[in-house]
Amino acid sequence: MSAYQAFDNDKAIEYINNLGGMFPPDAQLNCYEFGDGNLNLVFRVTDQHNHSVILKQALPYARCVGESWPLTLDRARIEASALRRHGEVCPAHTVRVLHHNSEQAVTILEDLGHLNILRSELNAGRTFANLGRDVAHYLATTSFYHSDFYLTPANKKALIQSFTNPELCAITEELFFDDPYQDNERNHYPDALRKEVDKLRHNTGLKLAIAQLKQRFLSAPQALLHGDAHSGSLFVDDTTTKFIDPEFAFFGPIGFDLGSFIGNLLLNFCAQHGRICEASKRRDIHTYLLRTIDICLSEFDYQWQTLCEQHGTDNTLQAPGYAALFLRDVLQDAIGYCGSEMIRRTIGLAHVSDLDEIEDEQARLRAQRLALEVGEQLILNARSCHNKDACYQLIISVLQ
Ligand code: SR1
Ligand code: MG
């Protein structure tokens, strides 16, 4: 098999058989496709002893839109390379790559089917004690070891080149920072939100802040990001937290991933108003989500500063207080990106089931309005946060 072709179940099995080494020679393989994401084919291939692997193949277009939205196959190479690099420095929280073929845009991954996607778990009201700490560990470690504080300047520049990901970055640039703030046929939201959407679009302070966030996304190659760190990109159980799907990886502003993750926890916070009727249960999950955000911010801050102290190589770290100053900007960026994730997931192209699957229409509208309001206030006030505690206090204050 040489030229690219999109797989069906039989082709996926044939590919794995020809590759060899994934299963014992006498394996009887079964396969089904179950990708429900926005972009790719995802197959689970299982033998008669229930051993399994995941075969992921990029399509030459965005699956959620169709062939009218062509998309580079190179995203499969970027994703596999990012997983390998992130897996080297943070194996505990990165799915393992078993094989990659750039020509077929195929990656074979360990099967994490014993875990569940975080978004569905949160939607069902389930909580995970280690989540905030684990995500902070992944984000701090993967970003520090791919930043100027650790890499040599020459090495970093070479990596920036190999992770140049213009088509996938363009999706984020448009979906995060352009579409929600102007008329675009990709946006969708109920007519009942028209007033709130117009208010966002007429807020000049907000548009300025969004312009600054977009500019930083375009031109601050601080570290190798995951690029799409939402709660559908995380597999979890009580003891394990694993990131998957970094096809949007590129060298960008470190606060982007942290902000995306916290934004998704806050979207779930807003959604719980329409999901759980019992007030005490709702209070419990709200408390859990806020505690997780608090832990994530604190651990990220602590781990970054510790990594700088213990493994930092760049001379800038000799200037007393520079690591803390750099981190302050990262945290402010994170709060801004958190707010923009909340807005684009409520009125843009790609929504979240947390909000969209609230059955009662009025409850859904209330949750969506809250998400827009919280997102807006976070973006407008992000630059007032001078440390992690101020970030957390801002989040608490805008939720009240
Ligand atoms: C066309 S892709 C839409 C969204 O799905 C991905 O997971 C990213 O979040 C992207 O913005
Ligand atoms: Mg994805």
From TrEMBL:
<keyword id="KW-0547">Nucleotide-binding</keyword>
<dbReference type="GO" id="GO:0005524">
    <property type="term" value="F:ATP binding"/>
</dbReference>
<keyword id="KW-0028">Amino-acid biosynthesis</keyword>
<dbReference type="GO" id="GO:0046522">
    <property type="term" value="F:S-methyl-5-thioribose kinase activity"/>
</dbReference>
<feature type="binding site">
    <location>
        <begin position="245"/>
        <end position="247"/>
    </location>
    <ligand>
        <name>ATP</name>
    </ligand>
</feature>
<feature type="binding site">
    <location>
        <position position="228"/>
    </location>
    <ligand>
        <name>substrate</name>
    </ligand>
</feature>
<keyword id="KW-0067">ATP-binding</keyword>
<keyword id="KW-0486">Methionine biosynthesis</keyword>
<dbReference type="InterPro" id="IPR011009">
    <property type="entry name" value="Kinase-like_dom_sf"/>
</dbReference>
<dbReference type="GO" id="GO:0019509">
    <property type="term" value="P:L-methionine salvage from methylthioadenosine"/>
</dbReference>
<comment type="subunit">
    <text>Homodimer.</text>
</comment>
<dbReference type="InterPro" id="IPR002575">
    <property type="entry name" value="Aminoglycoside_PTrfase"/>
</dbReference>
<comment type="pathway">
    <text>Amino-acid biosynthesis; L-methionine biosynthesis via salvage pathway; S-methyl-5-thio-alpha-D-ribose 1-phosphate from S-methyl-5'-thioadenosine (hydrolase route): step 2/2.</text>
</comment>
<feature type="binding site">
    <location>
        <position position="344"/>
    </location>
    <ligand>
        <name>substrate</name>
    </ligand>
</feature>
<comment type="function">
    <text>Catalyzes the phosphorylation of methylthioribose into methylthioribose-1-phosphate.</text>
</comment>
<dbReference type="Pfam" id="PF01636">
    <property type="entry name" value="APH"/>
</dbReference>
<dbReference type="InterPro" id="IPR009212">
    <property type="entry name" value="Methylthioribose_kinase"/>
</dbReference>
<feature type="binding site">
    <location>
        <position position="40"/>
    </location>
    <ligand>
        <name>ATP</name>
    </ligand>
</feature>
<feature type="binding site">
    <location>
        <begin position="110"/>
        <end position="112"/>
    </location>
    <ligand>
        <name>ATP</name>
    </ligand>
</feature>
<comment type="similarity">
    <text>Belongs to the methylthioribose kinase family.</text>
</comment>
<feature type="binding site">
    <location>
        <position position="56"/>
    </location>
    <ligand>
        <name>ATP</name>
    </ligand>
</feature>
<protein>
    <recommendedName>
        <fullName>Methylthioribose kinase</fullName>
        <ecNumber>2.7.1.100</ecNumber>
    </recommendedName>
</protein>
<keyword id="KW-0808">Transferase</keyword>
<keyword id="KW-0418">Kinase</keyword>
<feature type="domain" description="Aminoglycoside phosphotransferase">
    <location>
        <begin position="33"/>
        <end position="262"/>
    </location>
</feature>
